[in-house]
């Protein structure tokens, strides 16, 4: 093991095993389950060769696709052998599947998480039975198709039509315009053969809104397109090389009446349309998906900071007075950047896992959300939308900073940092554009303010927690958050009121004029959720040293937010004065040094295997240069001593010139 | 043309032709030269097929490399036919070469900008003649090799040795350790056959520091490695797919005495070492390179914002009260994000071009920097280092925001945004890590403060400008910057003094403890440079409407900086009070609407061809969906109706299972 990283581990006050168990319990529900799953992970990775052993990041797109395709099937088989459903939320954590796939995703995620789930949620009992029987007796790879080339966030704007034909009792699907061509759905291009398709239901020229239809895209014999269906991959993207995203064009595609999922709305054979259920439950079910996404996004960030912290301990750069190059983790600018990332990923870890557990709990006590109160749904929607947005905003921001903190080598694909940034980038858009989501949160907050009710989740732990010494230590900080929230929301409400009543704008216009500020209040609301969840979990840690290390890290998180993210509003609204702000900065600089002592063990506690990280720089043993050089040697450009570029281009060019020219 | 983008163009108050000429004059020195070069560009692009017509972003790395290789040679030939040197700074602007290569770079950039330049700068007269004669009579592709796998920023830490052998009058090059293997130099892996190699000179076991050596890497007959030389590509990276970056390992590579570039230091045949010149001029020559880099980095940002603004005018999303989906440029959150980018790229445009012209001027009046005063050099180093860092920091930040502002389609490679982000990301590290550069700037600022002298460049235009009504309009803003600068630098100096004299830290430790703040002061210093350059250029614009549009945009830039980047320090140091800060925000929201009227024409004024942008979303005619769909259809995954993934994986898997299984 590299001597520098060993020294970091030896100097830490953190008890690693205890910290791993603590985080494992929060992530997987109990220590027993955690150990069970880690055992499963180790068996899986001994059976299925991880992509980190496949020179994966040096490969071309076709090769990556085939590798992920094969390994996805192997993982499914392995899970089946172990009697575990691939839908199990436990398994979908990056920590387990990621031991084989690194930050890559299973190719069939949409089959289980969207295609099957939609049928189960939106289908009648008869339909669920029917489609499961088809799935059980055929090799169905399903996906979920909604967005169109001209339409994203705004579902009502979708143009693809499903026109009901009474005579034949069929729907006829069409993409009547260029903008109505379906675009982006995962695996719809070349992999999937079935799909849920969202389309506007038309009966007798009347529009009954967007409904869900099961449509076969390719036949099960030879994977060729069904009549009237054109699908294809949409080409390269900012990432996701191993996955196809599809475009799909329907031209008079006929599907039977049965294929419209009819639990909430149905079409009778004679063409009568009937609302049969509430869409509320549909929305409620999205909550769990979104909370899971928060957990996933933060896992990405924790992968990225594991790499950056370990490399910062190993890398030496520039000379001190004695002519020795210090570890770069010694530098304040480095600490300032990477510890912000580290403290953020811990805080979001507590928050996202709290949210997941809380929503599962709500689901259980409301009979699969059937009995959920609309007010509770509003609250949960507000926090889950906001937390999803802030998770991916943070992940993108800090994963990028982590790459910069690793210098040149961070830019090599061997660093493992690139696909994390790419996924975080996409995550700011997929499953709801972050700005749109934050504005949904803000709309709820504004309504609450107007009604004079609190938008915050009521934590069952709160009254107990407030008695703790830990809370007393943080109380002044918490007061800053809450005071700022109250002042900001009242400022925005006041401004909107004045825009309508004094400037004469419509409510719609006034809303738009306040959206920059509304995004801010939504972010602050999410922060408040995060600090309460964090404090509660840290308070539950029984190892004194570990609790202290977490407390330092958490205080650092709070100080970053106060001195950086919210400082302008805090000072503008006189929540704290200039001297206090200066003291907070001094305190922050002091905490950097304390956190530095435990940083390596704090990332070790995430318990990732090297095959999770897929990173030369983040290797547990710190032998980064060997691995970097190995990766280099495995470049596909090195397959021959003389690359075809010379043979095919430079040499003939030179001869063609017939002159001993110079460039 | 798309009706929405046409409407934007018709509604603008800006005179497009005049604005193009205005920017062209600043960029190329005169309107005549600008038109000459645009003419050259149009001829070039009619002769050499641009990469935007080659399905480039859908290709694999090998194919990209070969295309850029071929087109680089074609461009060299074209320039030669037109009697223009490829070294000409005019030509290297992204606007010209980019008409063929988009944001990609010529493969031989390091040959002209580093290999040849180093020989010319560091070689004796005899050496320059010798190497030019070799270059003239052979097909030499040169590069510049410095960084090692374990050593980047810190040049003195390089481990590769060049040991002088008196008997044979040769140097023997070795990479004695893993960490000493050369890593990252562009084209050194598979393309180049010659290189400047930076290595530690050893004579009789004594270390004479890092010197420059000309080393042949591959022979000129068949491109195979020279004895003792191992080179290879380092593998995939976060971008630059079309370029090889190399690793190079030397094992007892023998080169003649003549190959050490000896203008500043030489080795006599008997082994005597002699300093023969000053390194000052070497550093001075880097100034122009760095200023050119600022201009290049900002060009990238202007490409990216051109795409984002045009797409924002075309894209419609979400419904207003009338059920119509507005152009997304209508939304305040969209305006707030993209106009920050737009105002930034204009401000940096003025600043970077001022710096280039200023340094060329200094070069001319100091006889190629031979007579430059050390004090002037310090000043120029401080501003060029800082501006390079801030240019790429801004470019990365805003190019990423622009991608997010384009929603899902921004993530398609068809958007053209991805390679811009990738280049910006790399640019934050290459040619000097941004944090390291900002700290170099800060070190200079601190020294100036201690000596009581001003670090700011003296602008020849300043006294005249101060009389203008434009200056009077901005004076209050300028005062905020200058007051803040004075207060911040004195605060930092005070803190350092107290850390040394009261806390008892060493100067070295105290410096490290203040580096987070020192980065801030360096950024502010750069901002002050930018606002003066911007105001001067805007004041020189004689078209009243255009000047007004630029003034609004510039005020917006200043307001972003005051309310966002510097707001915490501004309020903490009581430079403005809470009410003023609130007024600034209101003013900013108002200006968003004004800038919105001219945004499309302001990006049209950059005068990029569609082939510069390589973007479906940024197309001049606004027909984005056609182009996006074209790109999708051209995905390599669509070459067959049934992808090999099905044939090679799913089908055999299914058969192997011999069961009609379900996933």
UniProtKB/TrEMBL annotation, chains A, B:
<dbReference type="InterPro" id="IPR009100">
    <property type="entry name" value="AcylCoA_DH/oxidase_NM_dom_sf"/>
</dbReference>
<keyword id="KW-0576">Peroxisome</keyword>
<dbReference type="GO" id="GO:0005504">
    <property type="term" value="F:fatty acid binding"/>
</dbReference>
<dbReference type="InterPro" id="IPR036250">
    <property type="entry name" value="AcylCo_DH-like_C"/>
</dbReference>
<keyword id="KW-0276">Fatty acid metabolism</keyword>
<dbReference type="InterPro" id="IPR012258">
    <property type="entry name" value="Acyl-CoA_oxidase"/>
</dbReference>
<feature type="domain" description="Acyl-CoA oxidase C-alpha1">
    <location>
        <begin position="283"/>
        <end position="446"/>
    </location>
</feature>
<dbReference type="Pfam" id="PF01756">
    <property type="entry name" value="ACOX"/>
</dbReference>
<dbReference type="GO" id="GO:0033540">
    <property type="term" value="P:fatty acid beta-oxidation using acyl-CoA oxidase"/>
</dbReference>
<feature type="binding site">
    <location>
        <position position="186"/>
    </location>
    <ligand>
        <name>FAD</name>
    </ligand>
</feature>
<feature type="binding site">
    <location>
        <position position="147"/>
    </location>
    <ligand>
        <name>FAD</name>
    </ligand>
</feature>
<dbReference type="InterPro" id="IPR002655">
    <property type="entry name" value="Acyl-CoA_oxidase_C"/>
</dbReference>
<dbReference type="InterPro" id="IPR037069">
    <property type="entry name" value="AcylCoA_DH/ox_N_sf"/>
</dbReference>
<feature type="active site" description="Proton acceptor">
    <location>
        <position position="431"/>
    </location>
</feature>
<dbReference type="GO" id="GO:0005777">
    <property type="term" value="C:peroxisome"/>
</dbReference>
<dbReference type="Pfam" id="PF22924">
    <property type="entry name" value="ACOX_C_alpha1"/>
</dbReference>
<comment type="pathway">
    <text>Lipid metabolism; peroxisomal fatty acid beta-oxidation.</text>
</comment>
<keyword id="KW-0274">FAD</keyword>
<protein>
    <recommendedName>
        <fullName>Acyl-coenzyme A oxidase</fullName>
    </recommendedName>
</protein>
<dbReference type="InterPro" id="IPR055060">
    <property type="entry name" value="ACOX_C_alpha1"/>
</dbReference>
<dbReference type="InterPro" id="IPR029320">
    <property type="entry name" value="Acyl-CoA_ox_N"/>
</dbReference>
<dbReference type="Pfam" id="PF14749">
    <property type="entry name" value="Acyl-CoA_ox_N"/>
</dbReference>
<keyword id="KW-0560">Oxidoreductase</keyword>
<keyword id="KW-0285">Flavoprotein</keyword>
<dbReference type="GO" id="GO:0071949">
    <property type="term" value="F:FAD binding"/>
</dbReference>
<dbReference type="GO" id="GO:0055088">
    <property type="term" value="P:lipid homeostasis"/>
</dbReference>
<comment type="similarity">
    <text>Belongs to the acyl-CoA oxidase family.</text>
</comment>
<keyword id="KW-0443">Lipid metabolism</keyword>
<dbReference type="GO" id="GO:0003997">
    <property type="term" value="F:acyl-CoA oxidase activity"/>
</dbReference>
<feature type="domain" description="Acyl-CoA oxidase C-terminal">
    <location>
        <begin position="476"/>
        <end position="654"/>
    </location>
</feature>
<dbReference type="InterPro" id="IPR046373">
    <property type="entry name" value="Acyl-CoA_Oxase/DH_mid-dom_sf"/>
</dbReference>
<feature type="domain" description="Acyl-coenzyme A oxidase N-terminal">
    <location>
        <begin position="23"/>
        <end position="132"/>
    </location>
</feature>
């Amino acid at each position: 093991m590299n001597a520098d990283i060993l020294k970091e581990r030896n100097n830490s006050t953190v008890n690693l095993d205890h910290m791993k168990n603590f985080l494992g319990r929060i992530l997987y529900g109990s220590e027993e389950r955690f150990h069970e799953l880690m055992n499963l992970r180790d068996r899986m990775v001994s059976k299925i060769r991880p992509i980190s052993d496949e020179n994966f990041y040096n490969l071309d797109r076709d090769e990556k696709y085939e590798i992920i395709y094969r390994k996805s099937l192997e993982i499914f088989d392995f899970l089946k052998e172990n009697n575990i459903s691939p839908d199990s939320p436990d398994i979908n954590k990056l920590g387990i599947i990621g031991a084989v796939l690194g930050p890559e995703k299973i190719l069939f995620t949409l089959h289980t998480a969207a295609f099957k789930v939609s049928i189960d949620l939106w289908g009648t009992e008869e339909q669920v039975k029917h489609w499961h029987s088809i799935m059980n007796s055929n090799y169905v790879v399903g996906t979920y198709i909604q967005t169109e080339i001209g339409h994203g966030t705004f579902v009502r704007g979708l143009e693809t039509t499903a026109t009901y034909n009474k005579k034949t009792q069929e729907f006829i699907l069409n993409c009547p315009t260029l903008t109505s061509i379906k675009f982006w759905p995962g695996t719809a291009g070349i992999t999937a053969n079935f799909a849920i398709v969202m389309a506007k239901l038309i009966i007798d020229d009347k529009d009954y809104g967007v409904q869900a239809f099961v449509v076969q895209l390719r036949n099960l014999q030879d994977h060729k397109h069904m009549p009237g269906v054109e699908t294809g991959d949409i080409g390269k993207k900012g990432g996701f090389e191993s996955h196809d995203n599809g475009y799909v064009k329907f031209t008079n595609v006929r599907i039977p009446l049965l294929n419209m999922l009819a639990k909430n709305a149905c079409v009778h054979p004679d063409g009568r349309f009937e609302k049969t259920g509430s869409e509320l439950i549909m929305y409620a079910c999205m909550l769990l998906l979104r909370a899971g996404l928060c957990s996933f996004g933060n896992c990405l960030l924790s992968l990225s900071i594991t790499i950056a912290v370990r490399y910062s301990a190993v890398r030496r750069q520039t000379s001190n007075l004695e002519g020795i190059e210090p570890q770069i983790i010694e530098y304040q600018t480095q600490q300032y950047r990477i510890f912000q990332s580290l403290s953020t990923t811990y805080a979001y870890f507590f928050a996202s896992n709290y949210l997941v557990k809380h929503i599962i709990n709500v689901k259980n006590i409301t009979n699969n959300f059937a009995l959920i109160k609309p007010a509770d749904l509003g609250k949960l929607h507000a926090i889950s939308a906001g937390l999803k947005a802030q998770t991916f905003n943070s992940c993108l921001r800090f994963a990028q900073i982590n790459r910069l903190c690793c210098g040149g080598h961070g830019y090599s694909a061997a660093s493992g940092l690139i696909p994390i940034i790419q996924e975080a980038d996409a995550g700011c858009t997929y499953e709801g554009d972050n700005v749109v989501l934050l504005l949904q949160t803000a709309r709820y907050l504004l309504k609450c303010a107007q009604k004079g009710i609190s938008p915050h989740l009521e934590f069952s732990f709160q009254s107990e927690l407030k008695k703790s010494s830990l809370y007393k230590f943080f109380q002044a900080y918490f007061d800053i958050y809450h005071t700022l929230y109250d002042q900001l929301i009242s400022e925005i409400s006041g401004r909107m009121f004045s825009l309508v009543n004094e400037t004469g704008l419509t409510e719609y216009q006034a809303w738009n004029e306040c959206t920059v500020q509304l995004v801010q209040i939504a972010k602050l609301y999410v922060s408040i959720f995060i600090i309460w969840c964090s404090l509660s979990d840290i308070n539950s840690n029984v190892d004194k040293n570990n609790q202290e290390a977490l407390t330092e890290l958490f205080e650092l998180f709070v100080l970053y937010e106060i001195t950086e993210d919210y400082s302008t509003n805090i000072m503008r609204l006189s929540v704290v004065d200039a001297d206090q702000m200066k003291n907070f900065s001094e305190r922050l600089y002091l905490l950097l040094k304390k956190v530095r002592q435990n940083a390596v063990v704090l990332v070790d506690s995430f318990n990732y295997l090297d095959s999770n990280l897929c990173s030369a720089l983040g290797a547990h043993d710190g032998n980064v240069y060997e691995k970097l050089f190995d990766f280099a040697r495995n470049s596909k450009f090195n397959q021959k001593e003389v690359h075809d570029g010379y043979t095919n281009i430079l040499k003939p060019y030179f001869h063609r010139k017939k002159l001993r020219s110079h460039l």
